Amino acid sequence: MIRHSVSFKFRPDITNEEAKAMDAAVAEFYASYQGFTAAHRGFDLGMREGNYDYSVSVDFESRELYLAYAEDGAHQQLIAKFIAPNIVARAAVQFEF
Question: Which CATH code fits 2-96?
């Protein structure tokens, strides 16, 4: 199994409405995408100073399924329309478990 985890730091002037719209778009994409075994997303709870603001973790049965997800057109549109305009930093890792 491959787990893809990615965290985002929002731009300083993001509104609550923009953050919620991004989250709703991520949820909609995950509801329609069939190539993973599990997906989780959420906003940071603010329990530690310096944390990133939003994170997703998605599990795949193989590297090939992860790579297909990473290159998927709808996934790329989600990134371009809702994620990239709202963030200043991204940190990601893929690992086997």
Answer: 3.30.70.100
pTM attached to this predicted model = 0.93
Q: CB within 8 A of 76, min separation 6: which ones? A: none
SS3 9: strand
What's the pLDDT score for residue 61? Answer: 98
Q: How far is CA 42 from CA 7, 64, 87, in A?
A: 10, 25, 15
Residue carrying the six token digits 């993973």: 36
Model pLDDT for residues 28-62, shown as the tens digit of each residue? 999 999 999 999 999 999 999 999 999 999 999 99
